Amino acid sequence: MALTLSPFAPWPGWKYLPRDARDTLFLLGVIAWTVLPHVPHLPAWCSLLTLVVLLWRAKLALSNAALPGRWVLVGVLLLAAGLTYYSYRTLLGKEPGVTMAVVLMALKTLELRARRDAFVVFFLGFFLVLTHFLYSQTLLVAGAMLVAVWGLLTALVLAHMPVGQPSLRIASSLAMRTALLGAPVMVLLFLLFPRIGPLWGVPQDGISSTGLSNSMRMGSVAEVATDDSIALRVRFDGPVPPPEAMYFRGPVLSNFDGREWRGAPGRLDAPRLPENLRVRGEPVRYEMTLEPLRLSTLPLLEASATAPVIEGYRITPREDMRWVADRPLLERLRFNAEAYPAFAQGPTQRNLRLIGQLELPPGYNPRTLEWAAALRRDPRYANADARALAQALLQYIRTGGFSYTLAPGSYDDNNGRDAIDQFWLDRRAGFCEHFAAAFVVVMRALDVPARVVTGYQGTDPIPIDGYYIVRQSSAHAWAEYWQPGVGWVRADPTAAVAPERISRTRRLQASPGLVAGTIASFSPELLAQIRGSWEAVNNRWNQWVLNYSRGQQLDVLKSLGVRSPSWEDLALLLISALSTLALAGAAWAWWDRHRIDPWVRQMDRMRAALRRLDIAAAPHDAPRALAARVRERYGPPGESLAVLLDALERQRYSRANIPRPDTALTRRFVWLARRLPLQPRSIAPG
Amino acid sequence: MTSGTLPHDVVAKPRFSLAGFVRARFRRWLQSRLPRTDTLLLTQGNVYILPTRAGLMFGLTLLVLLIASINYQLNLGYVLTFLLAGSGAVSMHLTHATLRGLTLHLKPLAPVFAGEPAILNVVLTSPGSARFGIGLKISGTADSTLGWFDVPAGGQAQAQLSFVPEARGVHELPALGAETRFPLGLFRTWAVWRPAAELLVYPKPERPPAPLPAARPVPGGPTQLRSAAGGEVEGVRGYRRGDPMKLVAWKKAAKALESGGELVSRDTSASAHQELWLDWQACATLAPEERLSRLTAWVLAADRAGADYGLRLSELTIEPADGEAQRRRCLEALALWK
């Protein structure tokens, strides 16, 4: 694409631009603003292409040059499609879709000839605004997009003011007025439009790039723990298990190379569930809506004895009690499953496969190994079984001055060769993955087979619409050790130091960032205040806008006095509210059609009053003429009436446009006219 | 105040189509329901509104946004969709309100010649707030002939429309259309106005005009110097107070003024005693309408020449005279000749 971006002509000033150029520049600005937040998600070529096209269009507008021919556009579009395919290896899906929408939007500005083209730009713009919400729905994004919508509406209004050079201020205030007048309808629809589930499964690739993974490195879970997006929702049929029992089992990591934990390679000869799982009691039945995790492992509640039925996927069990789909879960899924809270798993007899769960990389964490050996030498634990050893470790964590923090700092000194040493013996601060990893390392050092299990633990404390929400911030890592005769036993060392993390499932707070740190250094109170109000606003935002769902809708109905609100009540209320609005509009229209000009009505009343005083008052008589008649007939007693008529005359014919008559004047006039004694015609002077 | 002139778009005779026929019939029926008036107050009763194609597209966009919001469970998507829906609904009201309450008034019309554009001066009055983007056109013409006007709050806007009457006579004015898509273009609201005023259309003057017939001297009057071709008066004299402007021989006067002289008038004193009869019978070889065209051209030429002229039609005779009143009388007679 050969572009000659010669330096722009000297800027004539916004006011002195030709109308067309100004409107086009404004629209280009709005488009740039709308696209800008997408830049981090777009491939570099797309941002660059958009920038170049917008600048080119601006130059054409300023120089009033002809737009390029259609073939140029088709060429650029094909090029963009090719680049999109090159970037994503597909043209379908969210990311390529957004990329193509941005390119289309930019190219369409080069084709702004007819009104129809302008409308295509506007509608593409509204669509682009929506695509931002796929990435983020924070207050900041909402504010930026509100500005974008305002800009688009302003451009739309401007396109329908064909006369002269209307100022942007007028157009934008008209657009704002339109939107503000429409706000009540928006609020009504938002509150009452029935929230229904997805109409069909949409590919949700890339929505959540953080989450569980098949490996664990120190620090990786911290990213997840600060991500408040939803991982899954669970609704229980029947009693809800206590929070401390809600372990959603994800990838099991048993191979440790000193730096990184990985899952064991699958073995075909491994015993399969359910013969490896022994359950007791009644199962808990639940429905799970799973956001796309980009993993094959289904994070099912422990312990599932049967595979949930999910259309399009084949779910099979693994030796480590995971349920794995035949391909990664890239879309939102909803399925029913059941879990047995009371269970035992794994081999009861020591076998060869357990040996793999004892391996520790040589040369790593020597002091921890020494600490373990010292524990073994302790006569109390010389012959202790796995359970006793696990209790000892948990006791050590409870009493050893450990603290729970999401920002423990790096354990990467010395290439991570003594990361566990530092954690277990020196700094003693970390979060679940540190505790779980250290626990497993020490157990293995004590010759007890052990492994790390990752997944989600706990839910939001309050269910919404019957759904317990599990967020990415609930991602967790815990440990399992093997005990002869029992099998694998869960141990959650994090619970030993931060039990509330497990039982109340408090959301974890991330460490303060750079800006917050700077503010905190000179005014901690200010920071606390800012953070407090920001959190309050954000909380309201989350509660009232982002998490507003069917549950809240039904609550609104309850607060309106509906006993047992249902989906149908909601629809009924919405329809009746909208019909009431429409009927009110129709009634107003009817009234407006039959109403009389208020000025005419005022004159009618005043003329009627004058006729009672036996003064001729025809419709064409000006107030001034009537005043003269009153003075002539009534003299000084009628002066006050005449003065009012003169005042009315001034109002009617004043330069300043008075939209409505002065009703006080009318009332006073009628009142005075009633009190004036009727003057017989014969006595009238002159 | 704003004003503008509309180009007239010649409406090509459409090929016959059933839909077009039905639509034309419907329009005629609709218009026949409208009382003719020179001042029209636009109310709920005579302002119509329908969504535009862009409006329907907007609805489709809203549907797509709504489905996307449902499928991706985007509450902000709902907010956006409903905000746009609310704005669209409000824009319907605002579009209607742009015309509602507006008063259209037609100023008195000046007669025109057939084939020349007739100018309709329309005053738009807004009693309330400012109104933007009101388009006016002759009903039934293409949208490209719309002229756009803004009406200030509580004020007036002057609009000019033009159409070309094809035939002489007294014409009813064509229906006028006022429309607007302001503010968002999602709805089009329009009103049809049939002004009561009638337009007098003079016959189309013949072009190039045939030479005037020869004037006959009035018996008893002094003989005159007149060009044989007629029409051009040759004698000039000094300007006398009271000479009409059109008698001033401007070219000669300019020269005279340059050399320090005075204004010069054409000497028509002689022609006062000449009678120029513009006679229906004088152009017997022509078809009736062409005769009227020729007579019209003659009336104009004789009036320009400042001559006394009379007009003889088959059943009507206008005695010779000159001046604006004579011109008008003659042209009206020609316009209304049956």
Q: What is the CATH T-level topology of the largest domain in chain B?
A: Immunoglobulin-like
Structural class of chain B, by secondary structure, is alpha+beta
Range of strand content of chain B: 25-35%
CATH architecture of the largest domain in chain B: Sandwich
Give the CA-CA distance, first to last residue of chain A. Answer: 94 Å
* Rg from Cα of chain B: 29 Å
- The average pLDDT score of chain B comes to 81
Number of domains in the coordinates of chain B?
2
What is the helix content of chain B? Answer: 25-40%
Q: If helices are DSSP runs of H or I spanning 4 or more residues, what is the number of helices of chain A?
A: 23
Principal-axis shape of chain B equals elongated
Q: Identify the CATH class of the largest domain in chain B.
A: Mainly Beta
Task: Count the beta strands of chain A.
Answer: 19
Shape of chain A: elongated
Characterise this structure.
Chain A is elongated, with a radius of gyration of 38 Å. Chain A is an alpha+beta fold. A five-stranded antiparallel β-sheet of chain A has the order 9-3-16-18-19. A four-stranded antiparallel β-sheet of chain A has the order 12-7-2-17, with no helix packed on it. In chain A, strands 1-5-4 form a three-stranded antiparallel β-sheet, with no helix packed on it. The termini of chain A are far apart. In chain A, helix 1 packs antiparallel against helix 2 (44-63), helix 10 (366-377) crosses helix 13 (432-445) and helix 20 (598-612) packs parallel to helix 23. Helices cover 48% and strands 12% of the residues of chain A. Chain A has four domains: 14-192; 215-503, no CATH class; 514-547, no CATH class; 598-683, no CATH class. In chain B, the strands form five sheets. Chain B has a five-stranded antiparallel β-sheet. Chain B is an alpha+beta fold. Chain B contains six helices and 18 strands. Classes of the chains: A alpha+beta (686), B alpha+beta (338). Chains A and B meet through helix 5, helix 6, helix 7 and helix 19 of A and helix 2, helix 3, strand 6 and strand 7 of B.
